[in-house]
Write a sequence for this structure.
């Protein structure tokens, strides 16, 4: 009886842990995640987040599921000398562990767009 219960619990644990989902999107300043989706993680793979910087300024992030063709490999301060970009990639394997930060509030985007419109009008004057 104990053996059956242990088997049932271990089967349930394997079934639950098999359906790990990751966030999948390109995250850019002001807009947040563009084309936000989720992907089902394949067995043996990990969720990944790649942050791209120009100097110390964050340019964008790529969140996705690792695949057998492109598995997640953690790298820190990998630099592309041609473009001057720095890449940091982190891996994780829990449900939605590569969660994007909350979307920026509309008020911040409105202030930014209004400022840019004002600057444009001033330059045209």
């Amino acid at each position: 009886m104990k053996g059956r219960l242990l088997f049932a619990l271990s089967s349930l644990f394997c079934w639950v842990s098999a359906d790990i989902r990751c966030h999948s999107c390109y995250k850019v300043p002001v807009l947040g995640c563009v084309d936000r989706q989720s992907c089902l993680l394949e067995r043996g793979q990990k969720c990944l987040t790649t942050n791209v910087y120009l100097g110390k300024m964050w340019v964008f992030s790529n969140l996705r599921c690792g695949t057998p063709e492109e598995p997640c490999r953690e790298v820190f301060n990998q630099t592309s000398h041609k473009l001057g970009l720095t890449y940091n990639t982190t891996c994780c394997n829990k449900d939605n562990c590569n969660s994007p930060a909350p979307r920026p509030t509309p008020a911040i985007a409105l202030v930014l767009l209004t400022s840019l419109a004002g600057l444009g009008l001033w330059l045209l004057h």
Confidence is low (pLDDT under 50) at residues 11-17. The chain has one domain: 20-112.
